[in-house]
């Protein structure tokens, strides 16, 4: 099974962050991001729903955009580094 197919299967069952996917697959997060973005574009082109719970600052509640899948290093609003990573899930047709 290809990496992108495996990502699709994992994200179809439950929401995951890019970091948890990388850990589960034994990859670095940076190595996973291109394949993850490509797989999500392909899934959207097939008409599948892509649900992204955006990254959020734990200190002030600032919410990053849904296109930001990688964990931000700090909050642009309060400069805190306590960031909850975006969670991604692929829904049905």
Major sheet: size, sense and barrel closure? 2 strands, antiparallel
How large is the share of residues in beta strands?
5-15%
> What does the average pLDDT come to?
91
Structural class: alpha+beta
**Coarse shape:** globular
Q: What separation lies between the terminal Cα atoms?
A: 22 Å
Overview of the structural elements:
This protein is an alpha+beta fold. Helices cover 39% and strands 13% of the residues. The protein has helices spanning 3-13, 18-25, 29-45; strands spanning 50-53, 56-57, 83-84, 87-90. Strands 1-4 form a two-stranded antiparallel ribbon. Strands 2-3 form a two-stranded antiparallel ribbon. Helix 1 packs across helix 3 (29-45). The model has no long low-confidence stretch (mean pLDDT 91).
Give a quick precis of the structure:
By secondary structure, this protein is an alpha+beta fold.
Question: Which helices and strands occur, and which strands form pairs?
Answer:
Elements: H1 3-13, H2 18-25, H3 29-45, E1 50-53, E2 56-57, E3 83-84, E4 87-90
Antiparallel strand pairs: 1-4, 2-3
Helix pairs in contact: 1-3, 2-3
